[in-house]
Amino acid sequence: MVGYLQRISSGTVAVLADPLVLCNGYLDKKDNGRLLADLLGLASPGAAVLFDEYHHGLVLSDLGPQAWVTTPWGAGLLWLLVAVFVGLVLRGRSFGPRVRQSPEAARTDVEWAVAVGQLLRRSSARAVTLGLLAVATERAVSAQTGIPLQPRERFWNALWVRVPGLAADLA
């Protein structure tokens, strides 16, 4: 354990690195009781002896908002927040000019198709696009001809038998 003694005009200050040495629960351990008796022996008879009992370990209530507001730094931060809030309220203006949003017009199907096409072109999704278009076309042909789409091989075989011209165009 590390300790430091400093003589000042009205007495002596003793600082210990470990606050548990002088706690009630540890006075019977090792030579802690003897150390306390020696420290008290430094004071003259009848002199006042003061203990800083703040450092007894971390307590859960120390982490609450009441604990930091009662400290000087916490109180200063709280006053700063209150001053900024009151200043903004008294100022009565926003931080910048208001930006008006124009009412959004309904988009047509063509605009949506163009937007999706541009996104697919920008992302170089040619294979995905062609696959989606092929599936959509097969669905439309299936609805027109009445040929069931699943299983896919039967769809194409039936399409080549029933409508060979359309099958050739799709292929």
Describe the fold and architecture:
The protein is mostly helical and 171 residues long. It folds into two domains: 59 residues, no CATH class; 62 residues, no CATH class. Helix content is 51%, strand content 7%. The chain has seven helices and two strands. Strands 1-2 form a two-stranded antiparallel sheet. A hairpin with a 2-residue loop joins β1 and β2. α6 crosses α7. The longest helix has 20 residues.
Quick structural gist:
This protein has 171 residues and is mainly α. It contains seven helices and two strands; from the N terminus they run ββααααααα. The protein has two domains: 59 residues, no CATH class; 62 residues, no CATH class.
Features:
171 residues, mainly alpha, 7% strand
SSE map:
Blueprint: E1 3-8, E2 11-16, H1 32-41, H2 65-69, H3 72-91, H4 109-122, H5 126-145, H6 152-162, H7 164-170
Antiparallel strand pairs: 1-2
Number of strands: 2
Estimate the helix proportion, in percent: 40-55%
**Count of runs of 4 or more consecutive helical residues:** 7
Q: Oligomeric state of the chains?
A: single chain
Structural class: mainly alpha
Biggest sheet, strands in spatial order?
1-2
Mean pLDDT: 80
Calculate the terminal CA-CA distance, rounded to whole Å: 89 Å
Largest sheet: 2 strands, antiparallel
- Low-confidence spans: none
* Strand percent estimate: 5-15%
Shape: elongated
Rg (C-alpha, Å): 42 Å
The succession of helices and strands, N to C, reads EEHHHHHHH
The overall number of domains is 2
